[in-house]
């Protein structure tokens, strides 16, 4: 298995008073992780009691996408700042279905 060079840009974890967790991990890669065309690898997670509520991530072969509850959606990456803003917005609007 080939590994590519990466620089950790951000890692933060917040455990909220209600027990929910918000976690952000962001790496800058030496080259894009196909099929993504940008050089970032990320995992943005909001969940509680071991259940993911909102998650944005990208992976080799799958590309950029987001999970809301049990649904998965494609997500077009524009900038890191926009990705973080969209994630924050989804967390703030979260309502159990």
Task: Please tag this protein with its features.
single chain; 97 residues; mainly beta
Give your account of this protein's structure:
The protein is mainly β and 97 residues long. It has one domain (6-93). Helices cover 14% and strands 48% of the residues. The protein is built from one helix and six strands, in the order ββββββα. The chain has one helix spanning 80-93; strands at residues 6-15, 21-29, 40-48, 51-59, 63-68, 71-74. The longest helix has 14 residues, at 80-93. The radius of gyration is 14 Å and the shape is globular. The mean pLDDT is 91.
The biggest sheet, with number of strands, parallel, antiparallel or mixed sense and barrel status, is:
6 strands, antiparallel
- What structural class results from the helix and strand content? mainly beta
DSSP summary, beta strand count: 6
Which regions have little confidence, pLDDT < 50, spanning 5+ residues? Answer: none
Order of helices and strands: EEEEEEH
What is the overall number of helices?
Answer: 1
Shape: globular
Bin the strand percentage. over 45%
Query: How large, in whole angstroms, is the Cα Rg?
Result: 14 Å
Give the distance, in angstroms, between the N- and C-terminal Cα atoms: 40 Å
Give the total of domains.
1
Q: Please bin the fraction of helical residues.
A: 10-25%
Report strand order across the widest sheet. 1-2-3-4-5-6
Mean pLDDT, to the nearest integer, reads 91
